[in-house]
Amino acid sequence: MQTGKLTKVPGFKAFVASDDKLLCGKPMAETYQALSNAEFWDTANEALEGTGAVVESAGTIMDRSRRFLTIKLADDKREIGGRKFLHRISFVDSIDGTTHFYAVNTSVCVVCANTARMVMGDMAGEFRFKLKHTKGFRAKIEGMNAQIESMLGVRAEFESALEIAASEPLVEDNARNLFAGWLGTDATKLSTRAVNTAERLTALYRGGAGNKGKTLLDGVSAVTDFYSHESSGGEDKEGFRVKQELSSEFGAGARAKTDFLSALFLTEKGKVRGLNRNGITEMQNRGSKLLADYAAN
Predict the structure, then answer these.
(1) Which of 74-78, 112-116, 203-207, 214-218 has the lowest mean pLDDT?
(2) Three-state SS for 186?
(3) Mean pLDDT for the stretch of residues 32-42
């Protein structure tokens, strides 16, 4: 990881890499408060001091304009529904204003390498800890320690939700209708792409890695599998793997996984209160109708 330096040009300021002297990201306004890579590294490590957590991976993306640190927690393993889950916290930041400084709580299902944000009740798909690069930005980062403690509490609620899903039966027809209804939330009719996606999700529910086609957790796993590994197109397409990784962890794929999980559970002030049975039934009824209409036309 290169530390870089802040270089001023008339009316702008920008990061320039210390190795090849190329511009990282885009020029930014003078008011933008940016951390060097070294400061970003030190900030994350200071927030985790004494927790037993360690940095597992680090890197930059998007022409080095964004960076991330993935943290392995000391108590990082849990088995739910016959599947092993690992838990991670990632710090994400930009040096050119393309994103805030924020942290995300992520669960990884070992058997299939699916990921999901642990954001119960947070429809934005990002954890509450999110800071803008404005005046006082550095001072606000000092409160990260307390936020990390809160994130561990969110993890417990996420695990509770998965336990509920693992004990909830779900037959194949209802799973297909659930997927179709979720994909067609705002639609009067399903596109061919949406129908194909619903069928692919049903196949993953039935036979994806670790799935047996019996419970709602199989349905959750189908969605996280698809949006972790397949939603950006086929592997034969140029740049697929990079595009899929960005979508899965930072883009549309991450938002889709969060949206599906949020639709399944009732939450109150970050606490899981149970399944959103009315919402699930509504999605299944809508999906059944949309699929029937598609088949008729």
Answers:
(1) 74-78
(2) coil
(3) 78
Cβ neighbours of 152 (radius 10 Å): 15
Amino acid at 206: R
Q: What percent of the chain has pLDDT over 70?
A: 84
Contact 165, 85 (CB under 8 A): no
- What confidence score (pLDDT) does residue 251 get? 84
| 125: region left, alpha or beta (phi > 0 left; psi from -120 to 50 alpha) | left
Q: Which of 24, 22, 29 is nearest to 40 (CA)?
A: 24
How far is 248 from 45, CA to CA, in rounded Å? Answer: 25
Q: What's the predicted TM-score (pTM) here?
A: 0.79
Q: Scan for tokens 């209160």, then name that residue.
A: 273
At 116, list the tokens: 């999901």
Is pLDDT of 125 > 90? Answer: no
Q: Report the alpha-carbon distance of residue 19 to residue 157 in Å, rounded.
A: 44
What's the confidence (pLDDT) of residue 126?
A: 43
Residue positions counted in the chain: 297
